[in-house]
Input
Amino acid sequence: MPLDFTAIDFETANSSNASACAVGLARVRDGEVVATAGWLIRPPAGHDRFFELNTRIHGIREEDVIGAKGWSEQLDDLAAFAGADVLVAHNAGFDMTVIRRACEATGDVCPPYRYMCSLQIARKLYQLDSYRLPSVAAVAGFVDFAHHDAAADALACAHIVIDAAHRTGAYDMSSLAEASGVRLSQIPVAEPAPLFEFEIAGATAVA
Output
Protein backbone atom coordinates (compact mmCIF):
# COMPACT_ATOMS: atom_id res chain seq x y z
CA MET A 1 0.00 0.00 0.00
CA PRO A 2 1.23 3.56 -0.70
CA LEU A 3 2.02 6.24 1.84
CA ASP A 4 -1.45 7.77 2.14
CA PHE A 5 -2.65 9.89 5.07
CA THR A 6 -4.19 13.22 6.04
CA ALA A 7 -2.34 15.67 8.29
CA ILE A 8 -4.57 17.75 10.55
CA ASP A 9 -4.21 20.70 12.90
CA PHE A 10 -6.72 22.47 15.14
CA GLU A 11 -6.63 25.85 16.79
CA THR A 12 -8.80 26.44 19.87
CA ALA A 13 -10.57 29.50 21.23
CA ASN A 14 -9.69 28.85 24.87
CA SER A 15 -8.34 26.23 27.26
CA SER A 16 -11.22 23.82 26.53
CA ASN A 17 -10.29 21.07 24.08
CA ALA A 18 -13.84 21.33 22.72
CA SER A 19 -13.32 24.94 21.60
CA ALA A 20 -12.14 24.24 18.03
CA CYS A 21 -12.11 27.50 16.07
CA ALA A 22 -10.06 26.48 13.01
CA VAL A 23 -8.86 23.34 11.26
CA GLY A 24 -6.18 22.75 8.63
CA LEU A 25 -5.82 19.63 6.50
CA ALA A 26 -3.26 18.27 4.04
CA ARG A 27 -3.95 15.12 2.01
CA VAL A 28 -1.02 12.92 1.03
CA ARG A 29 -1.15 10.27 -1.67
CA ASP A 30 1.80 8.01 -2.43
CA GLY A 31 4.10 10.26 -0.41
CA GLU A 32 3.08 13.51 -2.12
CA VAL A 33 0.85 16.36 -0.91
CA VAL A 34 -2.06 16.48 -3.35
CA ALA A 35 -4.57 18.77 -1.61
CA THR A 36 -4.81 21.21 1.27
CA ALA A 37 -7.75 22.89 2.99
CA GLY A 38 -8.55 24.96 6.02
CA TRP A 39 -11.52 26.78 7.47
CA LEU A 40 -12.79 28.58 10.55
CA ILE A 41 -15.15 26.86 12.98
CA ARG A 42 -17.72 28.36 15.33
CA PRO A 43 -16.90 26.61 18.64
CA PRO A 44 -19.65 24.65 20.41
CA ALA A 45 -21.93 26.57 22.78
CA GLY A 46 -20.43 26.75 26.25
CA HIS A 47 -16.93 26.50 24.77
CA ASP A 48 -17.08 29.57 22.54
CA ARG A 49 -15.37 32.24 24.62
CA PHE A 50 -12.15 33.50 23.05
CA PHE A 51 -9.27 33.89 25.49
CA GLU A 52 -6.80 36.69 24.82
CA LEU A 53 -3.90 34.25 25.13
CA ASN A 54 -5.29 32.00 22.41
CA THR A 55 -6.09 34.91 20.11
CA ARG A 56 -2.57 36.23 20.61
CA ILE A 57 -1.23 32.87 19.41
CA HIS A 58 -3.36 32.28 16.32
CA GLY A 59 -4.94 35.67 15.64
CA ILE A 60 -8.53 34.38 15.45
CA ARG A 61 -11.20 36.43 17.22
CA GLU A 62 -14.83 35.80 18.12
CA GLU A 63 -16.07 38.08 15.35
CA ASP A 64 -14.07 36.09 12.79
CA VAL A 65 -16.13 32.92 13.33
CA ILE A 66 -19.64 34.41 13.55
CA GLY A 67 -20.48 33.31 10.02
CA ALA A 68 -18.50 30.05 10.15
CA LYS A 69 -20.03 26.59 10.32
CA GLY A 70 -20.44 25.12 13.78
CA TRP A 71 -18.70 21.91 14.81
CA SER A 72 -21.60 19.64 13.79
CA GLU A 73 -21.99 21.29 10.39
CA GLN A 74 -18.30 21.16 9.52
CA LEU A 75 -17.86 17.50 10.50
CA ASP A 76 -19.14 16.42 7.08
CA ASP A 77 -16.55 18.62 5.38
CA LEU A 78 -13.79 17.17 7.54
CA ALA A 79 -14.92 13.61 6.81
CA ALA A 80 -15.21 14.35 3.08
CA PHE A 81 -11.62 15.57 2.99
CA ALA A 82 -10.02 12.92 5.22
CA GLY A 83 -12.11 9.94 4.17
CA ALA A 84 -10.83 6.80 5.88
CA ASP A 85 -7.24 8.09 6.06
CA VAL A 86 -4.96 7.74 9.02
CA LEU A 87 -4.75 11.21 10.57
CA VAL A 88 -1.38 12.65 11.53
CA ALA A 89 -0.83 15.64 13.82
CA HIS A 90 2.05 17.19 15.72
CA ASN A 91 1.20 16.30 19.32
CA ALA A 92 -1.69 14.22 18.03
CA GLY A 93 -3.09 13.59 21.50
CA PHE A 94 -4.23 17.22 21.56
CA ASP A 95 -5.86 17.22 18.13
CA MET A 96 -7.62 13.89 18.63
CA THR A 97 -8.92 15.11 21.98
CA VAL A 98 -10.30 18.20 20.21
CA ILE A 99 -12.31 15.90 17.93
CA ARG A 100 -13.55 13.81 20.84
CA ARG A 101 -14.41 16.67 23.17
CA ALA A 102 -16.08 18.79 20.50
CA CYS A 103 -18.24 15.82 19.51
CA GLU A 104 -19.15 15.28 23.15
CA ALA A 105 -20.09 18.96 23.48
CA THR A 106 -22.40 18.82 20.47
CA GLY A 107 -23.72 15.26 20.85
CA ASP A 108 -22.18 14.14 17.56
CA VAL A 109 -20.82 10.65 17.04
CA CYS A 110 -17.04 10.87 17.20
CA PRO A 111 -15.41 9.35 14.09
CA PRO A 112 -13.06 6.53 15.20
CA TYR A 113 -10.09 7.76 13.18
CA ARG A 114 -6.77 5.97 13.33
CA TYR A 115 -3.89 8.35 13.94
CA MET A 116 -0.15 8.81 14.43
CA CYS A 117 1.84 11.57 16.08
CA SER A 118 4.54 13.38 14.10
CA LEU A 119 6.00 14.73 17.36
CA GLN A 120 6.62 11.19 18.60
CA ILE A 121 8.02 10.22 15.21
CA ALA A 122 10.40 13.18 15.29
CA ARG A 123 11.62 12.32 18.78
CA LYS A 124 12.44 8.81 17.59
CA LEU A 125 14.19 9.79 14.34
CA TYR A 126 15.75 13.25 14.79
CA GLN A 127 18.33 14.54 17.24
CA LEU A 128 17.15 18.12 17.93
CA ASP A 129 17.31 20.69 20.69
CA SER A 130 13.63 21.50 20.14
CA TYR A 131 10.83 19.35 18.77
CA ARG A 132 8.42 22.23 18.22
CA LEU A 133 6.74 22.06 14.84
CA PRO A 134 8.85 24.79 13.12
CA SER A 135 12.11 23.16 14.26
CA VAL A 136 11.15 19.69 13.08
CA ALA A 137 9.63 20.95 9.83
CA ALA A 138 12.87 22.80 9.03
CA VAL A 139 14.86 19.57 9.31
CA ALA A 140 12.31 17.97 6.99
CA GLY A 141 12.94 20.76 4.46
CA PHE A 142 9.77 22.75 5.08
CA VAL A 143 10.62 26.24 6.29
CA ASP A 144 9.22 29.76 6.61
CA PHE A 145 5.57 28.90 7.17
CA ALA A 146 2.98 30.74 9.27
CA HIS A 147 3.09 28.78 12.50
CA HIS A 148 -0.34 28.56 14.23
CA ASP A 149 -2.13 29.02 10.95
CA ALA A 150 -3.97 25.69 10.97
CA ALA A 151 -3.59 24.97 7.24
CA ALA A 152 0.13 25.85 7.29
CA ASP A 153 0.72 23.71 10.38
CA ALA A 154 -1.06 20.72 8.81
CA LEU A 155 1.10 21.06 5.69
CA ALA A 156 4.26 21.24 7.83
CA CYS A 157 3.18 18.11 9.66
CA ALA A 158 2.61 16.31 6.35
CA HIS A 159 6.14 17.14 5.20
CA ILE A 160 7.60 15.81 8.47
CA VAL A 161 5.88 12.45 7.98
CA ILE A 162 6.90 12.26 4.33
CA ASP A 163 10.52 12.96 5.31
CA ALA A 164 10.34 10.37 8.09
CA ALA A 165 9.10 7.77 5.60
CA HIS A 166 11.98 8.59 3.24
CA ARG A 167 14.52 8.27 6.05
CA THR A 168 13.20 4.91 7.21
CA GLY A 169 12.24 3.45 3.85
CA ALA A 170 8.65 3.11 5.00
CA TYR A 171 6.13 2.52 2.21
CA ASP A 172 2.88 3.02 4.14
CA MET A 173 1.68 4.16 7.57
CA SER A 174 1.90 0.70 9.12
CA SER A 175 5.50 0.25 8.03
CA LEU A 176 6.31 3.78 9.25
CA ALA A 177 4.87 2.90 12.64
CA GLU A 178 7.03 -0.22 12.75
CA ALA A 179 10.17 1.54 11.51
CA SER A 180 9.86 4.48 13.90
CA GLY A 181 8.58 2.58 16.90
CA VAL A 182 5.57 4.88 17.14
CA ARG A 183 2.16 3.38 17.74
CA LEU A 184 -0.65 3.65 15.19
CA SER A 185 -3.55 4.48 17.51
CA GLN A 186 -7.29 4.95 17.20
CA ILE A 187 -9.75 7.40 18.71
CA PRO A 188 -11.83 5.25 21.06
CA VAL A 189 -15.47 4.74 20.16
CA ALA A 190 -17.73 6.25 22.82
CA GLU A 191 -19.32 3.70 25.11
CA PRO A 192 -23.14 3.70 25.24
CA ALA A 193 -24.64 5.32 28.32
CA PRO A 194 -25.09 2.77 31.14
CA LEU A 195 -28.56 1.63 32.16
CA PHE A 196 -29.51 2.29 35.77
CA GLU A 197 -32.24 0.38 37.59
CA PHE A 198 -34.32 2.06 40.27
CA GLU A 199 -37.47 1.30 42.22
CA ILE A 200 -40.75 3.12 41.51
CA ALA A 201 -43.68 2.20 43.74
CA GLY A 202 -42.62 -1.40 44.03
CA ALA A 203 -41.80 -1.80 40.34
CA THR A 204 -38.36 -1.87 38.77
CA ALA A 205 -37.71 0.73 36.07
CA VAL A 206 -34.75 1.11 33.76
CA ALA A 207 -33.32 4.55 32.91
About this structure: Residues 195-207 have pLDDT under 50 and may be disordered. The chain has one domain: 5-206. The chain is about 35% helix and 20% strand. The helical segments are 52-58, 71-82, 92-106, 118-125, 133-139, 150-168, 173-180.
